[in-house]
Amino acid sequence: MSYKNFKVEDLVQDAWFRAWVNGNDPEANVFWEKWLIKNPGEQEKVEQARQIVKSLSHLEAPMPADRKIAVWKAISSKTTLPQPQKRVEDSTKKSNNETVNTWLRAGLKLTASLLLILAAVFVFTAIRDSVNQIKLAKNNQSNSFQKETGERERIRFKLPDGSLVYLNSESKLTYDRGNDGFAREVYLSGEAYFDVKKDEENPFKVFANGSEITALGTEFNVKIGKSDSITVVSLVEGKVEVLNLSSEKKEALYLNEGERASITPSEKTMTKSTFDIISVTFWKEGLLQFDNTSILTVKEVLEQWYGINIVFQNTHKVDLKVTGRFDNEYLGNVLQSLSYSARFDYKVEEKTVYIKFKP
Predict the structure, then answer these.
(1) C-alpha dihedral, 215 to 216 to 221 to 223, nearest 10°
(2) Which of 83, 159, 228, 328 could form a disulfide with 163 if both were Cys (CB 3.0 to 4.6 A apart)?
(3) How many domains are there within the chain?
């Protein structure tokens, strides 16, 4: 279904959209994350609808016991037994038995009405409980799952299709097999290295910060920069297609081994260049390597690698670059080595490193 022509009120009434907002369905989460990546111009409309659904979300929860009691009291307080009408006495005055029957019939009608209302409340609640149980069962059988890493944490795991993934620290990956169980789609924030199992009938796709990468069987690295939000796709082996979703024409690049694509969503641009394969794959082996790397990139890598914050206390040369290779070294040893070539003094206070460059 295409949601581009939907208005805010249409989205609010859509069950698939509400499932995403309320976090009830992992498949809905994957679908809408992908849809927003492909349709960045719809963000404002989606956010308005999301806020409305959130404000109404309390209506989706099963009715608690105290709420049922409150409903019953409200019904009871607003319902009174009808008073018998005074009738002008005449020579044909009704008997006491007829008066009793009038009261009895009124009481029975009132009781029946209250029982119907109470039954409706309980049936409505039971139906909602059943729907929630069905949704929960569906979620448990879902083909989607997530992996997330914290500071200084790097993990390696296999996807259900057999592809191997190395997930760098402070990164998140969501994998989706689709409703038919054959789709292979990954949604990434952070950095990951993929060794994709070959399957020509079912291409492997990675969605990352305004880009879509398609591969059959290959190895490549995807990294989203923290400071500049540039997405870099580096192909180590095989062949991939990189689609720039942020550009109006959805331009595409085809990469060969040793080539990389750099996508800048804010500028809607994508460029292709070559790179040193070893410099991209080192991190998954526990190695830090800088090869004529800018000091700003070094700062970002060290912060992610060691879970620290680096503060530059003064300005540095615009073109300052450093080179070095470190194999599972302590932070102090790395800083000591880099301080000679980059000419700076440093001080470490808990999880913050203060760097002052020399004239």
Answers:
(1) 30
(2) 159
(3) 4
